[in-house]
């Protein structure tokens, strides 16, 4: 007799007549919709429970040390986000106070980044974006349009724009170059230098260069590129090539941890800066900021005047609608923390990063990032040859995942992509005691991997010994060898060594 699916026999809505418990309802015994809108409604309790249960399999954000994005905010900030979740900040007429908060955040950032002032007012203009990627796209487009306008005004060809950057840029720069048809002139990273070489960058400048990108905190190692050196070289050579500073992470770190570092609008050629509010700006993802030194650097063609929302308003973002909630949350963090609060948090993060780097170094790892606040609170490291290990960073990353930690392993930028490495982004909620747990788990993971390797080697050795001793195994081995075309002139012993790694590992010894 064919079995009736249990869902058919027990189907029915969540009503007092049926089982009111979500797990007793048909929804618990049916597949969740994956590619079609369901015909019927689902009770809200069931929808909520099914989705919550599904999301349990996501990683735990606090243990996700791969991400630069904020994973903790105070309850009051979360409340503000929730309470303003239904406001679209593009509706300037309807939400003038939210728009005012965006302007306040921009003025605060302009001041933090030493924008020039006229009559006590900043000359900078800017906008909130969905993240640094959008801000970088806008800034790149602005540099391209400005260059094009200048070329046209001089009666020169404007069909071959190029942009100079290191191979260590975040992918959004490659996107910007591809989307806006700009040639990338890349300064290679090397196995000992993971940031741009200022002299090489400036040497690449030609009449078609729309600008140079300098990164304040690279994604790979968190190091700061030397913006001042690039600026000084340009000035020395009488070049007015614009610099855009990608301060996605460093914009909210350097001013507090390393206030003496000169990287921002204090430098004459820095025309625009982006910073992610959702990284060290300490707001949940999606908010970034784009700022230009003055309106002169944002060509008019990029600014649209719209009036169909009830009043004239200027707009120069890619997206039209945008949540007000993250702008409000950014303003909350700014007034709640002030300079002292950001300084205290970023100072702690820097100390924790240094503490972690010191422990990793003691374990024999090679540290690639810079400590003591000379870079982001990020620890980039790799296994060193002195550790004489059989496994790589990817295996270690995988092992740590078993304990819930997400510590990514990845390969370095183009030109040194053979180099694999790992990175821990120290964020606000990564306290010293959580860091201690990570250190312990890295030690355990290293021991476990070394033990696994040793057992595997012993199993192979026993296997090879068995193969050598039995005639049947030798027959099988010789078949295997000939089917894998191992050169005939090799002796059996040599063949054993050559082919053993190709054979499926033997089962674990009892
Ligand atoms: C240096 C740098 N620039 C740009 C970005 C892109 O930022 P977002 O994720 O805010 O779009 C990142 C992201 O990690 C980054 O590290």
Automatic annotation (TrEMBL):
Residues with PTM N6-(pyridoxal phosphate)lysine: 279
EC code: 4.1.1.15
Domain of life: Eukaryota
Catalytic reactions on record: L-glutamate + H(+) = 4-aminobutanoate + CO2
Biological process annotations from GO: L-glutamate catabolic process
Single GO molecular function: pyridoxal phosphate binding
Entries under InterPro entries matching the protein: Glutamate_decarboxylase, PyrdxlP-dep_de-COase, PyrdxlP-dep_Trfase, PyrdxlP-dep_Trfase_major
Family: Belongs to the group II decarboxylase family.
Name of protein: Glutamate decarboxylase
Phylogenetic lineage: Eukaryota, Fungi, Dikarya, Ascomycota, Pezizomycotina
